[in-house]
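hey so u asked for the seq, here:
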Amino acid sequence: MWEIVKSIIKTVIAEWRNPDQSIWEFRSKENHYVFSKVMCWVTLDRATKIAKILRIKHYENKWKCEAKLIKEEIMAKGWNPDIESFTQYYGGTDTDSSLLLMEYYGFIRHDDPLFIKTVHRIKKDLFSQRTYVQV
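ran it, structure tokens below
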């Protein structure tokens, strides 16, 4: 199992800086999707915890540093101060409901002002006040 973890992390470290197609975005358009970067951070964060449990300091320290780099980049490039929200992709102005998972996965605290503003922006952009009739 450890070899599988190391293999996954090797791929994440090699690829996280590259644009991608995210998990449900336009299949023909690559970009630096914030949720994809968050999931790379999650992968490294969880692998770091596994390395800690197994007392493999070298991997724990190396992966923790890489996770920190990803987080720093997301905080710098994924936040749009003009709309006061994390965005679907770096430099974008669109929100994405997947960003609500940032807190669930432990990337950001629920009471962080950036997350609170993102939740409010997503509600403004994506929430519909329609009344639905049950059939």
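The radius of gyration is 17 Å. Helices lie at 2-15, 34-53, 57-77, 101-104, 113-126.
lmk if thats what u needed
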